[in-house]
Design brief:
Layout lengths: L7 H11 L37 H13 L8 H16 L3 E11 L2 E12 L6 E7 L11 H18 L7 E7 L16 H13 L5 E7 L9 E4 L4 H13 L6 E6 L6 H5 L4 E4 L2 H7 L14 H22 L2
Parallel strand pairs: 3-4, 3-5, 5-8, 6-7
Antiparallel strand pairs: 1-2, 2-4
Helix pairs in contact: 2-4, 2-9, 4-9, 6-9
């Protein structure tokens, strides 16, 4: 559930109009490539060697597997399947995995939630924190292929690439629970439970002071992707990411226009930690898919997953050059 101030009223109308459909939930193995015919030619991922080693097809397959679990809002039985799957994939990739089980006070009572953090130790002081949320909105038939699924599939592929490396700065990849509002985003602080828990936990443990940059991925895999600069994000970090994208030739995806979103980066901005939100909410709202049962795998582009993954991998390298002393 990422809430855009600009589009909120429009989104409410779209939600009412769009809730009658059904989502397709065919199970897919993340390690079994989809056939070429299952993707539009223009949305097929390029070979991984062309995108910095990041495999967009594998990210797509991870996303499809997540969608196969069906709706998985915080506290549901199906989210336990999702959590077990994320943990098992991270463990198989050799990641150091930390689990933070906590209880969130929500408008409908206490809900058990879990953040999953893959940790890659660095050789020098400092940390880069990459984040996604994996919960889906509490709506009938909502499987969240783009809103939750795409960024989580991307982050699983990121872990597959990074967990066996020895970076200069530590890299944490946080899979967050509880981003979506249980009832109403605009009331009772009913949102971003996982990121607020993570920011508070890292401050308590003394890790927050080591974070050089937070990069949040949320709604980054849709067809026709247009990544605008999120206005509350830290300007220098946004400039670094967008200039990196331009050097890689992705100016048509990472565009110069701006947007506004309240999201999982907010608790870190409040703690004065540099943070950037990579999100294309505007287009998904305009298409009529946001928070509807139509948020399904046919809306996802393996090519765009590869592009965003490539930009994040290259931005991590740029951040290391900036901060590793």
């Amino acid at each position: 559930m990422t809430h855009s101030r600009l589009w909120f009223a429009i989104a409410a109308l779209i939600f009412v109009a769009g809730c009658g459909g059904k989502a397709g939930n065919a199970a897919v193995s993340a390690n079994t490539p989809a056939t070429a015919s299952s993707l539009d030619r223009q949305d097929q991922a390029p070979p991984a060697q062309q995108t910095g080693g990041f495999d967009g097809q594998r990210a797509y397959n991870y996303t499809a597997k997540l969608v196969s679990f069906g709706p998985h809002p915080s506290g549901s039985d199906s989210i336990k399947q999702t959590q077990n799957y994320i943990y098992s994939e991270l463990h198989a990739d050799g990641c150091q995995v930390g689990l933070d089980n906590f209880h969130a006070q929500t408008p409908v009572g206490t809900i058990a939630m879990q953040n999953i953090i893959a940790k890659v130790p660095g050789t020098k002081k400092g940390m880069i924190l990459l984040m996604t949320h994996y919960d889906t909105k509490r709506l009938a038939d909502f499987v969240g292929a783009e809103d939750g699924g795409s960024s989580t599939g991307l982050m699983l592929e990121m872990a597959h690439q990074l967990c066996h490396q020895k970076p200069q700065l530590a890299i944490w990849m946080a899979f967050l629970d509880g981003e979506e509002a249980v009832v109403d985003w605009d009331k009772d602080n009913d949102h971003t439970y996982g990121s607020r828990e993570l920011a508070a936990r890292m401050e308590l443990d003394g890790d927050l002071k080591d974070v050089k940059a937070v990069v949040l991925a949320d709604m980054i895999g849709q067809k026709g992707l247009t990544m605008k600069k999120e206005s509350s994000s830290t300007p220098w970090l946004v400039d670094l990411i967008w200039s990196t994208a331009a050097k890689l030739g992705y100016q048509n995806v990472f565009v110069s226009q701006s947007t506004s979103a309240s999201d999982d980066h907010d608790p870190f901005l409040e703690q004065k930690v540099p943070a950037a939100d990579l999100i294309d909410l505007d287009d998904y709202i305009a298409e009529g898919y946001w928070h509807t049962p139509q948020d399904t795998m046919d809306k996802i582009s393996a090519k765009n997953l590869a592009i965003v993954g490539h930009v994040i991998v290259a931005s991590v390298d740029a951040l290391e050059k900036k901060f590793a002393q």
